[in-house]
Amino acid sequence: MTDDTHAGLPAQTGAEGRRRVAAVVYNPIKVDLPAIKEVVAAEQAAAGWGETLWFETTAEDPGKGATEAAIAEDVDMIIVAGGDGTVRAVAEAVSEHDVSLALLPSGTGNLLARNLKLTLDDLEHSIHSAFTGDDRQIDLAMVEIRREDSRVDRHAYLVMAGFGLDAKMLANTDDELKAKIGWLAYVKAIVLALRDKNQLRIRYKLDAERTRSMRAHTVIIGNCGSLQANVLLLPDAAVDDGQLDIVLLRPEGLVSWAQIISKIIWENGVLSRTRLGRRFRTKEVEALNYIRGERFTMTVSRPELIELDGDEFGRATAIRTWVEPGKLTVRVPAESTD
Hints:
Elements: E1 5-6, E2 9-10, E3 22-26, H1 33-47, E4 53-56, H2 64-72, E5 77-82, H3 84-94, E6 100-105, H4 111-115, H5 123-132, E7 134-146, E8 152-157, E9 160-164, H6 165-171, H7 175-181, H8 185-194, E10 200-206, E11 212-216, E12 218-222, E13 244-249, H9 254-268, H10 275-278, E14 288-293, E15 295-308, E16 311-332
Parallel strand pairs: 3-4, 3-5, 5-6
Antiparallel strand pairs: 1-2, 7-8, 7-16, 9-12, 9-15, 10-11, 10-15, 12-13, 13-14, 15-16
Helix pairs in contact: 1-5, 2-3, 6-8
Protein name: Diacylglycerol kinase
Keywords: ATP-binding, Kinase, Lipid biosynthesis, Lipid metabolism, Nucleotide-binding, Phospholipid biosynthesis, Phospholipid metabolism, Transferase
GO cellular component, one term: plasma membrane
């Protein structure tokens, strides 16, 4: 007779009575695979799940193909082990299926995990939460990007999409330096991007409002608001509020940059994190404009670099982006669902 219990817990079964099965989609460059396999084996047995399946990403395919292969095996959960780009690609592929997504933070940014307040550097805790945690519905942001040849392609993103300084910073980032010193590699890239005096000439429309025109240095559209180093760029953004939060940076000199730094580092990073502190937030400054809504359309006067969740996505002449509320199911520790 087969014993269907492990460590005192009943076997976890799906809708048809079969034992639940997970898959791990992993970036081999980012992870310690033997260590992950050891912990997964212990946790799947303790939680009563079946044998986990394994799918490797490649440089040419950061996660979509591996995820589709996993889904074809009728898995119940996909654990994604990789950086922000891998998480984005896997989420894009899994969003149309009844499969939950668990995060094993393994990169420099780990931006979605940060915004969900998940543990970043504890392999055992992350895997344990995947097999024993709860499901949480979060929003998925979608974007249609129009290219120079009028071709339009569609992608998902979980954290932010950016034009201007944001995208140029990524283009200037040294990947080898990033691998050695992490997010500090962006400092050099920011300095290089700031030397670029070209501004974006944009026309944008938010929901049903009238179309507006302006010049901006940077445009960032966020599904959630926190970056590395505890920087809160979009203080009102939440990953499950059904809204996009957009910031338009329009600095005209050193004074303007000082205003922006003060707002983002001090007010957003310190004051906005407490109820008392939020009372002392100042009004919007001219160099930094926040808007929010469900749909955002923007055209630029010339092709500009765009980034999605920290990865370059080429040049765009226009975008249309919107939020799909509760589209993605993610696994979180059982005690954190409130």
